[in-house]
Design goal:
Blueprint: H1 15-38, H2 47-67, H3 69-74, H4 76-92, H5 105-127, H6 129-134, H7 144-190, H8 197-226
Length: 232
């Protein structure tokens, strides 16, 4: 999207610079939201504190059905931070003259790797390396020879399945937001004063949905890593 006008592109047309600068802009916005929410905290929340507390409560409620309330609160810092970063990054691209960092595969891949490394770390810490690897495949009561044969067949599939989560998380977010940005750019070129109203609402909904999907999948992967031992 280097050919699309961006305000920060007036300084340099280098696309790496544009994405990095928009990433820093997203970070500043998120830090600004956190600062506004915590600068004058009250027992009865108002303003930004009320919005952020409602958001955090919603994230806990979302995770409670997936991983349980205690673990949902335990992993709240990671999931809530990822959610607000993805949401703000998505929303930035809807504003003409700005570009979504999430429309770049390097940004979404970094988020996916954070989730992948962290949930595997949590699984290993809870169960130990050997038991965690064993938990990939549940064969139940089987003949030892058949169980070994199935393990040889199933473990490579499960390992590939886990690795594919990196691709799934990163490319789903990247593909959707990149498509949204291209769609908005085309609409702005065809009918800059009339057509964008409906697409803006649609892209806002899409940005919220993608942030929700990323958060819920993070909870699902964490649940699979840390709760599997409780199922035996």
């Amino acid at each position: 999207m280097a050919e699309i006008f961006t305000f920060l592109g007036l300084i340099s047309h280098n696309h790496t610079y544009i994405i990095v600068s928009h990433t820093l802009l997203v970070a500043l916005i998120v830090l600004g939201i956190a600062k506004l929410a915590t600068s004058s905290m009250q027992i009865v929340p108002t303003g930004m504190q009320n919005i952020v507390e409602s958001y955090l409560g919603g994230v806990i409620s979302m995770g409670k059905d997936v991983i349980g309330e205690d673990l949902a609160k335990h992993y709240l810092p990671l999931v809530a931070t990822i959610g607000i970063v993805v949401f703000v990054a998505n929303m930035v691209g809807i504003i003409p003259g700005f570009e979504s960092p999430t429309s770049n595969i390097n940004f979404t891949l970094a988020l996916a790797l954070i989730v992948f490394i962290y949930y595997n770390y949590e699984g290993i810490k809870k169960q130990g390396p050997l038991n965690y690897i064993k938990s990939f495949v549940h064969l139940g009561e089987m003949n030892p020879i058949a169980k070994f044969a199935m393990s040889v067949f199933m473990y490579p599939i499960e390992i590939v399945s886990h690795l594919s989560r990196i691709v799934s998380l990163s490319f789903r977010l990247f593909g959707n937001i990149k498509g949204d940005d291209l769609f908005l750019a085309v609409m702005l070129m065809l009918a800059p004063f009339i057509a964008p109203l409906a697409p803006f609402a649609l892209l806002t909904f899409s940005g919220v949905l993608q942030a929700f999907i990323f958060m819920i999948l993070t909870y699902v992967y964490l649940a699979g890593a840390v709760q599997v031992s409780d199922e035996h």
